[in-house]
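Title: Comparing notes on inverse folding

I've been comparing how different people in this forum approach sequence design from structure. To keep things fair, I'm posting one structure and asking everyone to reply with a full sequence. Here's the target:
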């Protein structure tokens, strides 16, 4: 299959085999998890216009509340938590800034996440001198941070993945070495996988970076509020990341509604 990415329509949650919302299996037998081949989310979906933008206001200047729009979740590889987005304790790490203000906080090797309601998050690697390297429209490009933001607010995302980072010089070199790669030469399906690979150097972020042998060691635990969660299982980290990003794109309210409908139907069937 190489780097060809088959485009499939995403199943909704009622069609997805999942775990018990409390995190426990109801059945004694083996659980069938989730494994999909996804399209390239950053490049195939045109950004949706924000109502404030249509009114002539710059989206980066608008109030953005991560706790209102974003889904709290954790990623586990077997029993190890390798990623966590949690707003407990005030969520100060998730404060967003205008691109101009973000520049004052960045250091070479930092991961940057640009966010906006109803859009996929866009990730980039800050390389210094006001510039980032990022995967944009099926090509790795070097841009000014303010241009890469496309008016979105941003934040430093170093804390999300719990892997040990490479040293900043290596992160920058990893990013710059890929500039110009595009189309079938790419090894990543979205900007997050590319940026995370640059910082952590793990093959799990690449297309086909892990053997698919039937086991599903990755779990995406989605927080539903009121100390309730729902868990999906995946064969590979890149598949899980694509589902996590879809949740970010449709937003917290839509994810909770999808899952609530799915769980209610399942409870009726039981």
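Reply #1:
Here's my take.
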């Amino acid at each position: 299959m190489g780097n060809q990415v088959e485009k499939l329509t995403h199943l909704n949650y009622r069609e997805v085999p999942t775990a018990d919302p409390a995190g426990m299996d109801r059945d004694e037998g083996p659980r069938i998890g989730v494994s999909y081949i996804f399209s390239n989310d950053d490049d195939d979906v045109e950004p949706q216009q924000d109502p404030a933008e249509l009114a002539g206001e710059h989206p980066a200047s608008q109030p953005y509340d991560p706790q209102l729009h974003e889904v709290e979740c954790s990623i586990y590889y077997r029993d190890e938590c390798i990623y966590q987005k949690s707003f407990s304790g005030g969520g100060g790490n998730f404060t967003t800034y205008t691109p101009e203000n973000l520049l004052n906080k960045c250091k070479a090797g930092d991961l940057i996440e640009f966010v906006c309601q109803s859009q996929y998050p866009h990730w980039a690697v800050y390389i210094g001198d006001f510039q980032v390297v990022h995967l944009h429209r099926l090509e790795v490009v070097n841009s000014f941070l303010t241009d890469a933001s496309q008016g979105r607010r941003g934040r430093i995302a170093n804390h999300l993945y719990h892997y040990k980072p490479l040293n900043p010089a290596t992160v920058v070199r990893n990013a710059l070495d890929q500039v110009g790669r595009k189309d079938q030469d790419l090894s990543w399906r979205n900007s997050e996988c590319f940026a995370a690979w640059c910082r952590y150097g793990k093959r799990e972020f690449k297309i086909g970076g892990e053997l698919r042998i039937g086991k599903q060691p990755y779990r995406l635990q989605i927080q539903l509020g009121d100390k309730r969660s729902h868990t999906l299982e995946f064969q590979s980290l890149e598949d899980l990341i694509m589902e996590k990003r879809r949740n970010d794109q449709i937003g917290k309210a839509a994810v909770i509604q999808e899952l609530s409908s799915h769980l209610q139907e399942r409870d009726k069937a039981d």
